[in-house]
Amino acid sequence: MPSATPAASRLTIPYVEFVALAASMMALNAMAIDIILPALDNIAGSFSIEDQNARQFVVTAFVVGFGIAQLAFGPLADRFGRRPVLLAGLVIYVAGGTASALAPDFGILLACRALQGVGAAATRVVAISVVRDTFGGRQMASLMSLVMMVFMAVPIFAPTLGQLVLFVASWHWILFFTAIFGAIVLLWSGTRLPETLAEENRRPLNGRKVIEAFRIVLTNRQAFGYAFATALAFGGLFSYLNSSQQIFVEVFGLGPWFPVAFSGSAVLIAGASFANSRLVGRFGMRRLAHTALISFCVLSFVTAILSLVYSGPMPFWLFFPLISAAFFFFGFVGTNFNALAMEPLGHVAGTASSVLGFMQTFGGGFFGAFVGYLYDGSVTPFASGLAILSGLAICTVLIAEHGVLFRQRYS
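RESULT FIELD:
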């Protein structure tokens, strides 16, 4: 077990179980998004959706609820502790998933998906907060890499699981499955997770204190800069989630093999998260993350240019390796950028996690929805959007770092 800060002594469960539980909290988000991807066609057909790009709103609605609700759960977690907020959020998640499966029309489905996202927001806020409560610096980055490795393993099998469900049942049962998974995490957390926020570190829940905590986050150059850069990078990821089913099925004609291709790129992201947990102590968060972001940007631009060069669709054998390599480098970006944004904000970890999470997920969801909705039957809008977003992320990091990349600091 890595050496820990004194706060880690409050853990009453083994380190491995703590990592697994934190990863499961985060995995609820990926599960709710990725498992539904193979069913987007079925959902559109079930509700007679005329605008085929509107099927992406099933993903967007979840992300919107997920992003906005973090603004409330952060201050609540700082006031009442991590456990009660987590358990309340898990109840909402289970209810939202169940209601989504029973939705009678598309509008109610989107509303219920947003509700499920609201519940998922608590799991994201609490997962990061308990990690920040117990570890700091490179130890926190290493632990978060392990959490993210398990979290990113979900997209490897979730679409395939969704496709298997479709072979034997309707798309409604996919949403029932997310509710069942949430209930399992609810039971596990309720019986095993200790409270990691000490009484003396709890912040009063009043307007002045909440505004003060928000001001601390938004006026910290490093925290705000890395949060916004993460939002831009996650915009690329969400655009991939939104449009991947259409790209792989309609452009490249993969049909039921879509989950296999999607899982292939997810394997690389998970592998990068694992590699990061081993390399961050040696090279530091900045060197790894800055190198990865530049590589992500270069590969995105190459893909965008090639998509314009070909008179028809660029070959799958060329598109898939390029985009998979780009998202491999993304695996080094998200984890380290989150840790760099949280590093100076330990004294307001709950609110910091909520504000940063709102910026990253709601902002990323907005950028991703915008790029995804531009889908025109080719990969050009997606690839171009990915290139622009990653380029803007580099500019934002330069601002956060006063124009100097790869600077060796304590992190």
